[in-house]
Structure formats: C-alpha cells, structure tokens
Automatic annotation (TrEMBL), chains A, D:
TM spans (from-to): 7-25, 71-92, 112-138, 224-245
Protein name per UniProt: Nitrate/sulfonate/bicarbonate ABC transporter permease
Superkingdom to which the source organism belongs: Bacteria
Entry-linked InterPro entries: MetI-like, MetI-like_sf
Native source species: Komagataeibacter diospyri
Subcellular location: Cell membrane
Keywords, sorted A to Z: Cell membrane, Membrane, Transmembrane, Transmembrane helix, Transport
GO cellular component terms attached to this protein's record: plasma membrane
UniProtKB/TrEMBL annotation, chains B, E:
Keyword Transport: yes
Domain ABC transporter: 20-248
CDD domains reported in the protein's UniProt record: ABC_NrtD_SsuB_transporters
Lineage: Bacteria, Pseudomonadati, Pseudomonadota, Alphaproteobacteria, Acetobacterales
Record organism: Komagataeibacter diospyri
Family annotation (PANTHER family): ALIPHATIC SULFONATES IMPORT ATP-BINDING PROTEIN SSUB, TAURINE IMPORT ATP-BINDING PROTEIN-RELATED
Protein name as annotated: Nitrate/sulfonate/bicarbonate transporter ATP-binding protein
InterPro entries xrefs: AAA+_ATPase, ABC_transporter-like_ATP-bd, ABC_transporter-like_CS, ABC_transporter_ATP-bind, P-loop_NTPase
Length: 254, 275, 318, 254, 275
C-alpha cells in the first residue's frame, strides 16, 4: 500500500485520466464512430453553457435546486442521524421500531412522489419531502450501523471510568466512536440528495432537474450534459466543503 | 474439589472492611455449557494489595472484568463496597491491552475518568499531566494513541487509572510490556501511592517475582473451569525475596500455577487448610 | 416483421390497442411491440436513436426530431381537437357547468383576478416543452387571448399521468388534458370547469398522429401499408363502435383500474375527433410550427409538407 | 449495550410498534383527523390488493420489476465492486481514475434517464442501465472505502509471511478485510436498486413503478400504498436472503 | 556520539555468513524533523541468537520492522541474506501484539505463512497443528481470535512464525504476556528449535534475565534518536546467571539501558571499545 508520495503525482494522473476520457469522446464523435444525435461533442458544451448562463436560466435553476437540496438535506440528515443513533444505542427503542423500520425503510424515496404531490403539492415543500425521506434512511442506517459496530471494549473502558450511564456513554463513546460512520453516511447523503433533487423536479418543481428534462424533451443533449456537469460541480463543492470539516473532526484517524 | 491452599499466618490487612466480596462466582460464555470460572469465593479488605497469578488463559482478566461489573457472572454474586470520597472514582481499571480511545489525545485519554467529577478544565488538565509525568510520558501528551509504542500505550492506561485515585484499583498485567527499569520505577511509584492512600489494589501479573515485590497477598487461579487454588499472605516489608521462606513459598505457588499438587508447607511458616 | 411502436397513454393511441386486441397486426404478419412513453417528447428521444420504428403521439415533437436530423414521416392522423384546458378551485369559480366558450377578455380577467386574489399566478399542468399540450396551451394564451404565457400562468411540464394526478390532487389550478383523463375528471370532480374546449384552443387542433421512422428504408416496405391499413381500420372502429373497442382500451389504458363506462364515455366523446386523413392537419401544424419558431422552441420553420407522407393514406383510402 | 437476551422480546416489540403505527393510522382516518383523500385507510389495503392480484396485474408488475432489478443489480454491483477494490488497492489506477470519478460519480442515476432513453430506449435495457449506474457507485465507494480503511498492520503481517505481492495481498488481506464493507455496500445497493427501479419505471417502463404511477394518476392511493408495501416486501425478501449469506461469510465477526 | 559498548571476548557464532546487515540506518516519521533511530550499524551472522534490549519506546519494534522490510528506512541500507530452502520462509516475525487476522480461525492464522509454499492442504494442516501443539493451544484451533485471552493470542502469533521454519526469525516481545511456566516451556522449545535448525533469531525483550537465558549476543538500543549503545557476547551454555561475571555484565547492561555511563568492564571478562 505504498501511497504515492508526491503531492503532485495524483492530481496530474487525475488530469491525465480526464484528458483521455474527453479526448476519446471528442474523437469518436468527430470520426463519426458515435452518431452525433446520441451524444453531444465535448466541444459543444462550452457554447451551450454560455448561452444558458447569459439567459439567466442557469443561475436560476441552481438557485432553485439548492433551496430544495439544502432544506431536504438538513431535515433528512438531522432526523436520520438522531433516530439512527438512538436506535443503535437503546435496545428497547430499537426493538419497538424494528418492525416499522422494516416496513418503511425499503420504500424508496421516489415511491413517495405520489404522496408528495398529494400532501405538499408541486412546489418546494413536495421536493423537500422527497429529498428528506431518502436522505433520512441513509443517515439512519449509517448512524445505526456505526453504533452497532462500536468495539464493546470501549464501553467497558468508559464504564470503568465512571461513564456507565446512558448520557455519559453517548458522550464519551457512542458519538466519537460512531463519528466516522455517521460522517460517511452524511457524505453519502450529500450525493444521494442530488438524485432526489432530480427526481422531485421531474415532477415540475423548478430547478436543475426540471431544466434538464426540458432540454431533453427538445433533444438538446448538450444542455442535458451541461446540467449533469453542473450537478457534478455543485456536488464537488459541497463534498469538498464537507471533507474539510470532516478532516478537522477526524484528525485522530491520521 | 474446592481445595484452596491458604496461608493466613501473617495476614496483614485482614482487619479492614471488606471492599470486594465474591460469592460462588461462575462464568460461562456459552450459556452454561462450559465454564471459565466456577465456585470462586473471595473477600478483599480495604488497604490490601492483592496479586492474582495463574497460567495464561486461565481467567484472570475475566475475573477482573467480573469484579469491575463489566460482565455479569453466570452464577453467584459480586458485592463492592469502595469508600466514597470527593473528586475521585470508587474503582478504576488498567486493561491488559491498554484500550485507549483512538479519537482522544494521550492527555484527553488520561482525563477520561476525571470528567464528571466536578473538576474545572484546568484541574483536570493538571491532574492528567501529573499522572503522565508519573509514567514518564508528559512530553507525549498531545500525541494520538496510534503514535505510541506498545509500552507507552500501556503506561497511558496506567496513568488514566491512577489519576482518578480510585479506592479500588484493578490492574491487568499493567507492566507487562515494560523494560525492567521503567517497570521498577513504576512499581515503586505504585507502592508509594498505595502506602499513602491506603487504597485497595488487585493486580494481575504473570510474574511471580513482581507479585512478591508488590503484594501483601497473592491468590492463584488454576484449572478448567478456573477456581481459587491458593491464597497466600506475604511477609511484612522490607522483604527479602531470596530468603529461604520466601523461596519456599514461591516454589509452592509455582507448583500451584503449574497445576501440580501442593507440596505442603513448612509448618514453621504456613499451613494449608481446606475451606 | 417486428415493429416497435412508441405510444403515449391517451385515447389517441387507442387504434393501436384495437389492432393488437383484434390480432389485426399479427394477422398481417406484424409482430407489434408497444412501448409506452409518458409524453411525446420522451418518445422522440427513442425515435432519433432508432429505438422505435413507429410513433403514435402528438405531432409537434416530430418537428424537434426532424430538426435533429431524424427521418420521420406522418402517415395518418389519429385524433384531432383532443386537448382541453380545465380548471378547478378559484380558477374555476363562477363558471357554468356546461362549457361556454370564454371570450379573450373573460379569460384575461379570470387569470388576472386569480393572481391578485391568490398572490401568485395560477399553476397549469401540461407536458414538457415541445409537446402538443404545452405548445397549444401557450398558443391559446398568446394567440387566442393575447396573454404572455409566462406572465399569465406558471406552466409545469410533467408526465401525462402526473399531470392528471396533480390536477386531481389540487397541486395545480388548471391543466391541459386529453381523454380519458377528461372523462375521469368530469366524474370524480364535479367542481372542475372547462376553460377552453378543443375547438376553442384551435379549430381542427392537431393531436396524435401515426408516424413512421425511416419510412423509405427497404425493410419498411414489408409492413408499412399493412400497418397503416390496420391503423385506419381501427380508427374507424373506434369512431363507430366504441363498445366493441372498450376491452382493448381498458386493458392498455386503464390497467383494469377504470370502470367500463368511463372508457366507453371517453371513447364516445372522442368519436367525432377521430380523423385519419393526414392532409386535414397540415395547415394547423404549419401554424403551430410558426408559433414554435416565434417562441424560440424551433430554430427555423421548415416546409411542413416534408413532414407528411399524404400519398400512402390516399392509396389505402381509395 | 446490554442486548435484549430473549429471542422473543425483539420480534414482540417489533410487532407492537407496527400495531401502534397501523392502529393510529386507521383511527385517525376513521375519526376524520386526516382527510380520507390524502391517505387510504389500512383496512382498505387488503381488498385493493386482492383485486389487483385477481386481475393478474400484481404478479405481472412484480415479474417485470424483478427482471430490471436483478439485471441492473448484478451488473452494477459486480462492476462497482471490482472497480472499487482495484482503485482502493492500486494507487496508480486510483490516481488515473480520480478525476473521472470526481466528474462522473456525482451525476445521479436519474440524471442519466435522458441518455438511457436515447441509448437503450424505454425498455428493460434502459431501466437496467439506470439501475446499474446508481448501484455501481454505491458498490464502488463501499469497496474503495473498505480497502482504504484496512489496518495497515495487516499488510505488514501478510508481507512478513510471504504474501507481499499484489495478488497474494489481495487474497490474504484485501478481500477478507474489506468483506464487511463490501457486503455493506452490496446491501445498500439492494435497497438503492429499488429506488432506481421506480425511477426507471416512472418513465413508463412496465413494472411496479409504472403501475404505481398509473394508480396515482387516478388518486388510487390504496393501490399506491399496496405497491409501496409490495416493494417493502420484495426488499425484505432479498435482504433476508442476503443476510443469510452474509452471516455465513462473516461468521468471524461474532 | 556513536559509542557502542562491545564485548567480543566470547563471541560465539561470528564465523557464520552475514544474514542481516544494517548500514547507517536512520528512521523518521516526520520527514526528517525528528528521528526515532539514527546511525544504526549492525551485522548479524547465521546461527546467532541475538536479544535486543532497550527502554520502553526507544525503537525496538521499529528496528525489527525495518529489518523485516515493513518500513523503509529514511537513511541507510538494509541487506538480508537468509538461506533459501524448500517449504519454508526465509524470514518471519512475531509481532508485539500478535496481530492475528480476525477473519481466520486460530488454525488458519497459523497456516498463513504456509500458503504459497506448495504444500498440500493436509500438510499445511498438520504443520499448523504441530505448531499449535507446541504452544499448548491445539484444542483452540477452531476458535476465532476474539475468543482468546491475551496470552493465548500471543502464543498463536509465535506458532504462526515457528511453523514456517524461517531462516531469520524476528520476535517482538513474544512471551511478554505469559506466566512464568508457560514462558519457560516456550523458551525451552525455542532454544531446542534453534539448536536443531541453526537459524538466526532476533529477539526483542524487556526482560534482561530472559535475554541472558536465551541469547548468544545482546544488543542494547538507547537514546533519542536511538542508536546501538551496547553489543555483548554471552558465555557458552550451560550458563549460571547468578555467577558474578554474569551479574556484572547484567549490571552494565542495566546501566546502559537506563542511559547511564558504562561503568567499564572487569578486565578479566570483557573489554569496551569504540567503533
Ligand atoms: N506513527 C508514529 N508517529 C510518530 N511517532 C511514532 C509513530 N509510531 C511510533 N512512534 C514513536 O517511535 C518510538 C519507537 O517506537 P517503538 O514501537 O519502536 O518502541 P519500542 O522500543 O518497541 O517500545 P516498547 O518497548 O514500548 O514496545 C516511540 O517513541 C513512539 O512514540
Ligand atoms: N468470547 C469468548 N468466548 C469463548 N471463550 C472466551 C471468550 N473470551 C475469552 N475466552 C476464554 O476464556 C478464558 C479466560 O480468558 P482470560 O482473558 O480471562 O484469560 P487470562 O487469564 O487473562 O489469560 P492471559 O494471561 O493470557 O491474559 C480463555 O481460555 C479464553 O480462551
Ligand atoms: O403528445 C404529446 O405529449 O406531445
Ligand atoms: Mg488476560
Ligand atoms: Mg515495541
């Protein structure tokens, strides 16, 4: 497992990989290996993006989507994390909810769309609901699993030093020991929430997903790709910000 | 079957209150099909320094965890009566493999037991640093556990237990990974602290000499399931481990640990009795 | 021959279900595979990449497909004047039960009042940009009523099923819908009112059509005429004897969830709208193409005639 | 962390929780606390389900969905797992793909729908593609993370006993040590794939999702819930089967 | 600064080939800001049994890992020349904290080093069981590591290394968690095996007496950064650790470990030289 030492090699390799990807893509369209209707050429993305920016649609779509994204993410993550931690740590609660979780958990966030429309309508509230639900379960399971995986020896240590009660155990063992798992769940949720943003917006709530669908119904594949990459960019930004926070919190992992 | 070789001729601290009382303890990991410990009766009095000896895998760590209340015995009762005092823990344990919390720095690992005692942050800090100083690791206070050597981790575990000044201190091979000098220094510290505070210590070791240096009383676990096979009072200090009486006692213990018959005591020094 | 036919779940696609149910396709040696799409624009995405051979849905998305180089020809019309604009709640307030053609002034007033009272524009469900419902709705606002569509209402382009649900659930104030959704809504929501009938939207309003992809490719010859013949025959049956067609339509559209009389009623209401001759919609399509160019949905207007193959129908009609 | 010992208490608690849930739900509808249009009464689900079974639509929808599910799951999981293991274990590959992964990973499975339609049409292949993509990333990250989290000491042990080469390390350390993480990813994928099944089917590919959308277009909320519960049931079955396999593989975790 | 107290008067196996050669080894965890080891030169010859002593945290484990090739030194070169033979490993290591693979049963942990040697499954099984028998754990072959006591885990680590019959055997406090009897038995086994196979052993211990019982040669690490501070040849067997010569040598070592000045050797027994 020799890590590549130099801090330069990795970014360079990464860039090389991207160049190869986009190069092959462009070439295969130029040489007609791939019918141009099936895939836009990378070189057409720039102009399409510029036009979209100029019209103001790009910024507006981002602003709309970010609103649902943030709200759904925060609500779903906080509730999911708390419930997961509690279920992991309190066998009684875990037992009581086990049946309900078994029934509700497998119902995918998207399957709630009919009820989202019914209960919240075709607007931000409906989108937030769908996003929150799918983020909820990811965080629930990450937190639950992390608590269950805690080395039981650590509870022994805590108990031996006066931290045997529930709240003390929560503070000295459960929260710090489950932090890596909980944060991994949060991070997965950051990505998953984008999936749900698209899903929720397919049903007419304005934003990137709606805009993407519009583009695809006009066969504007270049715009579709522009919005796919926009999502990738937004995700990369949130993810990078998240990793900075994570690094501070989990410095001990080294 | 419960033959315990005992020698109470020179029992030292037997007049104090009972701090730990085990009655007919049995412990099984498989719902009673096989037992690790069985029919263990034990009383430890305030101020005693008791060493626990026994072959590898016999159940010494298990016994300590039962006393600490970390595992519930399958049979029998455990009662603990440590004396309550402010700003200390009634009981604390040094684990066989240190068991530091990887997300806490060395210093904050030592502070673990100090939290919830109503101390200020500064007081906790000072007590933790004093304990780290004691075990010679003051300059490693800000490291993560993964950056320590095996012996250093073990010493952090010792500091963590000492700093809470417990009335009952359970130590599971605490000096096992230390060189003779570091170990000697820590043994001296431990004895000094014990003399000053008159706390109760239960000390697991695989080293008979260490037991003879430290303990007032030595108990021996042996067998499958393990039971108490010997209970010896060691003479008053200063001691001479090379004195013939001591050597004879050590030899009897060695045989008990090895599972051999007790050769019987030289009547001038001890008596073996059945209980 | 295997023919993959893309369709949308509206009554305009019913001829396909009759052809399949009556085994007319099979009898003509055609292995017909139906692929359901949730709007015309979705179907053209499969069309341009050659994933379907024939298309039964709104005619306008084909303009987009053509602009992206797809070779596709309309060979028959299926239904006309099928779309209506319906409203509920505040937007429907005070309207008579029987649809009465609203004047442009009345429409403008109604939308303005709603916006003032509710504090936001009414939300109207349609299908995605480029679809017939979306374009007609905008055309109705702009050309018929002199309203800027973006100012007058909040138009949401969603799937056909979703639009129906959104209207029933009250998630939108209005919708532009086709049968059988209109009949379903009439039955389930007595408070629903028609803002514009098919005729109000645009006389002779074009709707679902049968189009063939790469019509002149050699392998099409094997089934083109037979398919078209069956399709026209089925259209005729639907227009004349809805009861007989009901089971097939029920199977395909209702999925067993709709009562028989709803389907029959929907078929009956649509009966006079079934017009097969593609020539009858060329002008209207041309007008809508100009409107799409004006609105920026299409880059330029190309001769509409080249989208149509009027000859094939003429031959079998004789 | 005293586990609830008796093997009976947990199922009983679970059942109790479910009874409370369904009881409150039924009551609140009977007493009119919740408008009946917004939510079907639990007691109406049975009849709706029976009718759906009788018409054959239920079985057909399940059969259709399971086909997409299985194909997408297998393809996505196998590819994701392999790529993740390799990227985790081979720094050079990791470096080369890091850029590509950063760009492609955040694009949610649903955002690929336009291309799925374009490339595969709206049938099994298109649905399989969308499902496989989202399952791919879950497995990729689970495997990658699991490999990265391996205790470096274990490589030292393996190297000390003659297993220093890449393939030997793969066999003696990487695969067994990452197994819990990889299996956790597989399991998440089992659930995530249902989400994507619905997503793909919302676009008309026949199956449970399409059927649900049909029902919801008629506000047949009872049928919508029947299909939600159907998904829960199918998930529970696959998950239980999976856990049995997992238990055999990870017996050492105890 | 590189004063190494050496005593080659009775160097035993110095005629064999060089198996391990360290030249000017330095090791740093922080890119050269501080060093754990520095300027370490060492030659070990075939057949030598070398004990490594030093205070806790000095760098003994680090030295072993460098020799085993598990960490690359920041400075200097390591060269290994174990003799190749069929069906054994050139080198093997016993880790300080056992490091068993939790997903393998005890037996399959022992088999780890046997895989890839071209043995049949049955041969592997038999050799692993023989090694487990040697360390007294044959009846625990089917347990998972988590079901063992600390000392039992350590013994599994010993069995794992012994079963591959390495030419170079590196042992990091292998008997640290064992009671005297188990430890004595394993020490005897180890010496027997060493006498029979004439392999090379590098044995880290914190127990001077253990080193004197086992080793032909004792080296001492001390300092920050750590370097070789002593290199002693121990007399031929049978030995009497209580003989005055031995006691004097032990005392010199103790002082070196403690970082005190070397008191100088009794000229009759040894000489100290600068290299
Ligand atoms: N990752 C690390 N980062 C920084 N320092 C480290 C790291 N790992 C080990 N050290 C330091 O290196 C020194 C040597 O460690 P090593 O484990 O070799 O000691 P040791 O002689 O084996 O001690 P012990 O007898 O206690 O096992 C110690 O002081 C330790 O704190
Ligand atoms: N989870 C478990 N399941 C079954 N047996 C176990 C389990 N944990 C420990 N044991 C067994 O219990 C016995 C006692 O273990 P314990 O750790 O108390 O021994 P010990 O006396 O402390 O030994 P050592 O000196 O080696 O640390 C051992 O034989 C061990 O194999
Ligand atoms: O039929 C259309 O949805 O265009
Ligand atoms: Mg133990
Ligand atoms: Mg060490």
């Amino acid at each position: 497992m020799t890590p590549i030492r130099s801090i330069w090699i990795r970014p360079l390799l990464g860039a090389l990989g991207l160049i190869v990807l986009f190069g092959t893509w462009e070439t295969s369209i130029r040489l007609g290996w791939v019918p141009s209707g099936l895939l836009p050429a990378p070189s057409s993305l720039g102009p399409a993006w510029l036009e979209e920016v100029r019209s103001g649609a790009w910024i507006q779509a981002i602003r709309d989507s970010l609103t649902h994204y943030m709200m759904g993410l925060v609500i779903g993550s906080v509730l999911g994390m708390l419930t997961g931690l509690l279920c992991g740590a309190v066998p009684l609660l875990d037992g009581l909810l086990s049946g309900v979780v078994r029934v509700l958990r497998p119902i995918p966030g998207l399957a709630w769309v009919p009820f989202a429309i019914l209960w919240f309508g075709l607007d931000t509230a409906g989108a937030t609901f769908v996003i929150a639900i799918s983020v909820f379960w990811i965080n629930f399971y990450a937190a639950y699993g992390a608590v269950q995986a805690i080395d039981p020896d650590l509870y022994e240590v805590a108990a031996s030093f006066g931290h045997g009660g529930f709240r003390a155990r929560l503070r000295t063992v459960i929260i710090p020991a489950s932090a890596p798992g909980v944060l991994a769940g949060l991070r997965t949720g950051l990505g998953q929430a984008w999936m749900s943003v698209v899903a929720a917006e397919l049903f007419g709530v304005p934003g990137i997903g709606a805009r993407m669908m519009q583009a695809s119904s006009l066969l504007a594949t270049d715009l579709v790709v522009v919005y796919m990459l926009t999502m990738a960019l937004l995700y990369a930004l949130t993810d990078t910000a998240f990793m900075l926070v994570r690094k501070r919190l989990l410095g001990w992992q080294g | 079957m419960n033959t315990v070789v005992t020698d109470k001729a020179e029992m030292v601290a037997s007049t104090g209150d009972v701090v730990v009382r085990l009655e007919n303890i049995g412990l099984s990991h498989d719902h009673g099909r096989t037992f690790i410990l069985r029919h263990v009766d034990l009383e430890i009095r305030r101020g005693e320094f008791v060493a626990v000896l026994g072959p590898s895998g016999v159940g010494k760590s298990t016994l300590l965890r039962v006393i600490m209340g970390l595992i519930r015995p399958s049979e029998g009762t455990v009662s603990l009566h440590p004396s309550p005092t402010a700003a200390h823990r009634p009981a604390a344990m040094v684990f066989q493999d240190a068991k530091l919390m990887p997300w806490r720095s060395v210093r904050r690992n030592v502070e673990l037991g100090l939290e919830g005692l109503g101390l200020t942050r500064l007081q906790r800090h000072e007590r933790a640093m004093a304990a780290l100083d004691l075990v010679g690791l003051a300059d490693m206070a800000d490291r993560w556990p993964r950056q320590l050597s095996g012996g250093q981790r073990q010493r952090v575990g010792v500091a963590r237990a000492l700093t809470v000044e417990p009335d009952l201190l359970l130590m599971d091979e605490p000096f096992g990974a230390l060189d003779a000098i570091t170990r000697g220094a820590l043994q001296d510290e431990l004895l000094r602290i014990h003399a000053r505070r008159q706390g109760t210590v239960l000390f697991v070791t695989h080293d008979l000499d260490e037991a003879l240096v430290l303990a007032d009383r030595i108990i021996i676990l042996e067998g499958h399931p393990a039971g108490l096979r010997g209970d010896f009072a060691v003479g008053a200090r200063p001691r001479d481990n090379t004195a013939p009486g001591m050597r004879a006692m050590a030899e009897r213990m060695r045989r008990l640990i090895a599972g051999e018959e007790d050769p019987g005591a030289d009547a001038a020094y001890w008596q073996a009795s059945e209980i | 021959a295997t023919v993959r036919v893309g369709y949308i779940p509206v009554i305009g696609s019913a001829p396909l279900f009759v052809m399949q149910g009556k085994n007319w396709a099979r009898d003509a040696g055609i292995d017909m595979q139906l692929v359901r799409f949730q709007s015309g624009p979705q179907a053209i995405q499969a069309l341009v990449s050659g994933k379907i051979d024939a298309y039964v849905a709104g005619v306008l998305p084909l303009l987009q497909a053509r602009a992206h180089g797809a070779d596709v020809k309309v060979v028959a019309s299926a239904a006309t004047e099928e779309l209506e604009v319906v409203s509920r709640g505040a937007l429907a307030e005070g309207l008579p039960e029987q649809p009465a053609g609203l004047s442009a002034d009345e429409v403008r007033q109604r939308f303005a009042d709603f916006t003032t009272k509710a504090g936001h524009k009414p939300k109207i469900a349609a299908q995605p940009l480029g679809s017939v419902p979306d374009t007609l709705l905008r055309y109705w606002f702009k050309v018929r009523n002199g309203l800027d569509p973006a100012q007058a209402a909040d138009i949401v382009g969603i799937d056909i099923d979703a639009a129906q649900q959104a209207f029933l659930a009250g998630a939108v104030d209005g919708a532009i819908l086709r049968e059988p959704a209109l009949t379903i809504i009439r039955h389930r929501m007595p408070g629903m009112r028609v803002l514009a009938s098919g005729h109000d939207l645009m006389p002779g309003q074009p709707g679902s059509v049968l189009a063939i992809v790469n019509e002149n490719a050699p392998d099409r010859a094997a089934w083109k005429t037979a398919f078209l013949t069956g399709f026209v025959k089925a259209t005729h049956l639907l227009a004349t004897d809805p009861e007989q067609a009901e089971p097939y339509v029920q199977q395909a559209l209702g999925g067993g969830m709709l009562p028989r009389d709803i389907i029959i009623e929907a078929l009956k209401v649509s009966a006079h709208d079934y017009v097969s001759d593609p020539a009858s919609i060329v002008d209207a399509v041309s007008r809508l193409q100009d409107f799409e160019v004006q609105s920026g949905l299409l880059r330029k207007a190309e001769p509409v005639a080249s989208l149509f193959d009027l000859e094939s129908y003429r031959q079998i009609a004789q």
